[in-house]
Amino acid sequence: MRMRVHLPGAAPLMLAGAVLVLGLLVAAPLAVVFEEAFHKGLSGYLAVFGQPDTWAAIRLTLLVAAIAVPLNAAFGLAAAWCVAKFEFVGKSALLALIDLPFSMSPVVSGLVWVLLFGAQGWFGQALADHGVRIIFTVTGLVLATITVTLPFVARELIPLMQDQGTDEEAAAVTLGAGGLTVFRRVTLPNVRWALLYGVLLCNARAMGEFGAVSVVSGKIRGLTNTLPLHVEALYNDYDFVGAFAAASLLASLGLVTLGLKSALEWRYADQLAHARRR
User: Fold this and answer.
1) Single GO cellular component annotation (predicted)?
2) Does the pLDDT of residue 278 top 70, yes or no?
3) With bands split at pLDDT 50, 70 and 90, how would you rate the model's confidence at 261?
4) Fewer Cβ in 10 A, N or C end of the chain?
5) Alpha carbons 227 and 56: distance in angstroms, whole number
6) 227: pLDDT confidence band, cut at 50, 70 and 90?
7) Residues with Cβ < 8 Å from 255, sequence gap 6 or more?
8) Which residues contact 242 (CB under 8 A, 6 or more apart)?
9) What is the pLDDT of residue 66?
10) What is the pLDDT of residue 276?
């Protein structure tokens, strides 16, 4: 049974201030996006979704997220397991590399891939000689997205795994369980909700990424434009209603992600609290 706790002292005033700031910086701009999207009514709103380039951008955005998010989930789970459960040389360096995308501009992340695989890059000409292209293709978009979203799953799992310790895994090994069995029957069930939360955040970031994919995409309409890039293209064409309509779709996807997260937290609140106490 949940207890109701009254906020002490100046906490209500601070809470009101936080709500005001969030309203001005988050809710108000979001409301403007939807207001501008429906500026010419429902028909004007739907017109942009009748354009082939818009559907191509939507399909490409979903494709890139569908490839990048599972790869990041697998990496994040493996990296968090190693960092939280084992001591090894270079552990601090691995943590620094995981956090690096948080501190690096997405544009720089995109430029790194261009430097490596662009026409004048270190490996670009050698790959081109074998008919392989990375930049201005879906592969480049996926690589740029993976780089930017790399820390989301790992950083969600590492604190939880460190709090859980290694007692249960050690007990399972003592009883004769193998490494894969320990991971599948002990480690993974204990972190499944944090893993799902990290995947949701990673997916939202992957679909909304602009800077890195802008550098490696070439912005070819109908081919390499993701939905955020398509919004910019429509805006530059002075199709403001279309730009805001496409932006509203991105915002809606983010709101759906937030809704799923909240629903999971509400539905499995007891299990989440239990997992965090362990």
Assistant:
1) plasma membrane
2) no
3) confident
4) N
5) 9
6) very high
7) none
8) 47, 48, 51, 54, 234
9) 95
10) 52
**Please, are residues 118 and 125 in contact by the beta-carbon 8 Å criterion?**
no
What's the confidence (pLDDT) of residue 183?
82
Report pLDDT for 271: 58
Cα–chain center distance at 230: 19
Report pTM.
0.84
How far apart (Å, rounded) are the C-alpha atoms in residues 58 and 193? Answer: 28
- For residue 142, give both structure tokens: 């996926």
Task: Determine the residue type at 11.
Answer: A
Q: What's the pLDDT score for residue 2? A: 54
Residue 216, token pair as written in the block: 């490696």
Q: CA of 23: how far to CAs of 14, 19, 240, 272, in Å?
A: 14, 6, 24, 28
Percent helix / strand / coil, the chain, rounded to 5 = 80, 0, 20
Give the residue from 225, 212, 210 showing the smallest Cα distance to 60: 225
Cβ neighbors of 163 (< 8 A, separation 6 or more) are: 276, 278
Which tokens belong to 98? 């995981």
Q: Which tokens in the block code for residue 27?
A: 């809710």
Tokens of 169: 């895994």
Confidence category of residue 3, pLDDT binned at 50, 70, 90: low
The two tokens of residue 136 are 């201005």
